[in-house]
From TrEMBL:
Organism: Letharia vulpina (Wolf lichen)
One Gene Ontology MF term: hydrolase activity, acting on ester bonds
Highest taxon in the source lineage: Eukaryota
Organism phylogeny: Eukaryota, Fungi, Dikarya, Ascomycota, Pezizomycotina
PANTHER family, per the entry: LIPASE 2, SGNH HYDROLASE-TYPE ESTERASE DOMAIN-CONTAINING PROTEIN
Protein name (record): Uncharacterized protein
Biological process per Gene Ontology, one example term: lipid metabolic process
Amino acid sequence: NITSVLKEIIDKNGNDAFKVYMTGYVTFFNEATPLCESSSFRIWNPHYDNTHKEKGQPWLTTALRAQLNGVVVALNTILSHITSSVNAYYGNTQRIVFVDPNSAYAGHRWCEDGVYEPDNGRLNTWLFLSSTPDNSLPDDPLGALESYQQEQSDLVAFQ
C-alpha cells in the first residue's frame, strides 16, 4: 500500500520540512503522428514496414499508442491522487510532491513527427528500446558501442 508506506516514511522522519518526491511515469509515444502506423517494436527484428506484409506484428497504430499512453496517464492520476490524499492527512501541507516528467519529454518520445521508428541512431529519443544499442553520451570517454563490447568481453572472461 503506497499510502501507508509514504505515511510511515514521513512519520519516522519527524522533520516537518521533510518532503518525499514521487516521480510519475513518462508516456512512451507521440500518438498523433501517423508515421508509426507501420512500425513494429517486437523483440526480434523491430522495424518499419509500410507494406504490412508480415502478419501478426504488433504495429504501433495510433489506437495502440493512445491505449498504451492511457495506461501511463491512468497510473500517474492514481499516484497524484495518493499524493493529495497523504498531504490532506497531514493538514494539507505538501509533504509529498508529485513530479510529472511528461512536459520535459515533449519531442523526445518514440514516434515523433518525421521519425521512422525504430530509429537506432536518433539521439533525441530519450526512451530506451531493448533491441537497440545505447546512444553514446556527449562527454563519455568510452562510447556506447565500446562500453557494450567491453561488457561482452568481461562476461566471456568471467565464464
